[in-house]
Amino acid sequence: AQSVTQPDIHITVSEGASLELRCNYSYGATPYLFWYVQSPGQGLQLLLKYFSGDTLVQGIKGFEAEFKRSQSSFNLRKPSVHWSDAAEYFCAVGTTSGTYKYIFGTGTRLKVLA
Amino acid sequence: KAGVTQTPRYLIKTRGQQVTLSCSPISGHRSVSWYQQTPGQGLQFLFEYFSETQRNKGNFPGRFSGRQFSNSRSEMNVSTLELGDSALYLCASRGQNPYEQYFGPGTRLTVT
Prior knowledge:
The complex is a heterodimer.
Chain A: E1 3-5, E2 10-14, E3 19-21, E4 24-26, E5 32-38, E6 44-50, E7 56-58, E8 64-68, E9 73-78, E10 87-94, E11 102-104, E12 108-113
Chain B: E1 5-7, E2 10-13, E3 19-24, E4 31-38, E5 42-50, E6 53-57, E7 64-68, E8 74-78, E9 87-94, E10 101-103, E11 107-111
Parallel strand pairs in B: 2-11
Antiparallel strand pairs in B: 1-3, 3-8, 4-5, 4-9, 5-6, 7-8, 9-10, 9-11
């Protein structure tokens, strides 16, 4: 079955520290992969996406993610976190066969300490 | 371009009532999807409309329905509201690239 797992429900980091949010997926074919960010009371904003090609993708707000097929992972990273990065982050898989569907992970809530 | 807009942003209803939520996609986008977001279940796909036709449907009861108009605006209706329907309802639109969807700010529905 298709699924997306974000093993960390909450993560707390200090401002200026590096960040890595984990995402593992289960999908039979090559997936399309996404990271979204959601600020409190807001909708989801697309941070970055992977369709094919270079496995290291750059996104907005200084975020990057690396696709590792062998590990079925698509982890999100940022070298230096800012207080404004505090939000909830969602990893998603877009199915590539049949109808277009998104499968979202359960999210990781990031807290940033001043 | 204006983004995806949803109205109303907040809504309080009583059990047993019905509610209609509206979503206006980005200009030129013909696909509109609806999601329910709750703390317990996360983001769950409700349905997708494309050119006024329902193209995909999630696992929700028949109380949840939707439609899309010729201008691509979409409405979602929930009848006989239950307490468990309290959630943030998100709408997303897609254009030429089916894998790039853009979300609206959501409608926060509270059922009392």
